[in-house]
Design brief:
- This protein has 377 residues and is an alpha/beta fold.
- It has 2 domains: 268 residues, Spore Coat Polysaccharide Biosynthesis Protein SpsA, Chain A, CATH 3.90.550.10; 84 residues, Hexapeptide repeat proteins (UDP N-Acetylglucosamine Acyltransferase, domain 1, 3 Solenoid).
- The strands form 6 sheets. Strands 1, 4, 5, 6, 8, 9, 10, 11 and 12 form a 9-stranded mixed sheet that branches. It has a 5-stranded parallel sheet with strand order 14-17-20-23-26, with no helix packed on it. A 5-stranded parallel sheet has the order 15-18-21-24-27, with no helix packed on it.
């Protein structure tokens, strides 16, 4: 059966307010040259999904610039390809200015686009995670199991505090979901946690969305999944590979630092030959390393100029490090200009920032120091 993809570009923007004030979650820069949406797009393209719709809410200019025609993912096609779908404010909105806040509301506002999909199945996912999923295996398992809906989960150990951030499933020996707990506050131990990747037939999804519109449902898990546990065959698909959920700014920083130092995790994302992570290609000049610079355990993009010391850090394109500067455990976005004799530790600097000579800035691993876009210090 043919499959179309739907990616939610703005869900959970509020989890990362520092980096999503002027961009969507999908377009948040990550690890030198990527954006979060690259993982979702690449996972779909690697599973031969060539018709993809991106549901964008607001702040999607940088997302449009990054994706362009979709040629970097082989999605620049006359039939299918990639589309960015902004909010379709319709009669279902309470006021003309009402926008959606949940997954189900996003689907309701785009029901007309979903009805035009010609594929048999729809695979839905979002952009607030880092993982190299095998969607091909997922789709094969969905078809062979005869499930109406398949939800990807991962078995993890949860504390009471951690369980409040997740949707948790109970299942029987056949993998059929028997109960659902949406952000509970009393569950601990090893549990199946939703990774927000869902496979469903297009016909069933349209039926469920129309039912949600007529009953004013707003939550996909509470109002759709929970109400259909007995009437539909809803199964889980356990993912055992690497997965990092970005729930806050600390998660973003910790995941970035982990992928620098942990080669096993880095290879689990970027080292799979038949499932490459694709992104927009830019023809930047090579990085220039000065005679007295020192670089260790770092990821450096093209177009940088480094004349100081860089240790355990991530530098995006076009970053300039001045003489005798010391950059440790930091992430510098595109175009950052670092002066001479500057000292940075646990700092995340957004695009086009300037840090003048002899500045000393330091955060903490659990509370990185953030410099907003375009700021001069």
């Amino acid at each position: 059966m043919s499959t179309a993809g739907i990616i939610f570009a703005n869900l959970h923007d509020s989890n990362l307010p520092e980096l999503t004030r002027q961009r969507s979650m999908g377009s948040v820069p990550f690890l030198c040259r990527y954006r979060f949406i690259d993982f979702a797009l690449s996972n779909m393209v690697n599973a031969d999904i060539s018709s993809i719709g991106i549901l964008a809410h607001y702040n999607y200019y940088s997302l449009m610039d990054h994706i362009g025609s979709g040629k970097n993912w082989d999605l620049a096609r006359r039939s299918g390809g990639i589309q960015i779908l902004p909010p379709n404010v319709s009669a279902y909105a309470e006021t003309p200015a009402t926008y959606y806040n949940t997954r189900l509301e996003a689907l309701k506002y785009n029901i007309f686009n979903i009805e035009r999909i010609q594929d048999d199945l729809i695979l839905m996912c979002q952009c607030d995670c880092v993982a190299n999923f095998d969607f091909g295996e997922l789709l094969s398992e969905h078809e062979s199991s005869g499930a109406d809906i398949t939800i990807v989960t991962k078995k993890v150990h949860l504390t009471t505090q951690e369980s409040r951030n997740h949707v948790i499933f109970d299942s029987n020996s056949d993998g059929k979901i028997t109960d659902i707990h949406v952000k509970p506050n009393d569950i601990t131990g090893y549990k199946d946690v939703s990774l927000n990747v869902i496979v469903i037939s297009k016909k069933l999804l349209v039926t469920l969305i129309h039912d949600a519109i007529s009953h004013n449902f707003t939550s996909f898990y509470r109002d759709i999944i929970s109400r259909n546990l007995t009437s539909k065959n809803i199964k889980l698909f356990r993912w055992d590979g690497y997965y990092a959920d970005i729930l806050n700014f600390e998660d973003y920083f910790r995941t970035s630092m982990d992928l620098i130092s942990n080669e096993e995790n880095r290879n689990a994302v970027f080292g799979i030959r038949n499932r490459p992570v694709l992104t927009k290609v830019r023809n930047s000049p090579p990085t220039v390393y000065g005679d007295n610079c020192k670089v260790s355990n770092s990821l450096i993009a093209d177009g940088c100029i480094i004349e100081g010391k860089v240790e355990n850090s991530i530098l995006f394109r076009g970053v300039k490090i001045g003489r005798n500067a010391c950059i440790k455990n930091s992430i510098l976005f595109q175009g950052a200009q670092i002066g001479e004799h500057v000292s940075l530790n646990c700092v995340v600097s957004d695009k086009n920032t300037t840090i003048r000579d002899r500045s000393v800035l330091s955060g903490n691993e659990s509370l990185p120091y953030y410099i907003s876009k375009g700021r001069m210090i």
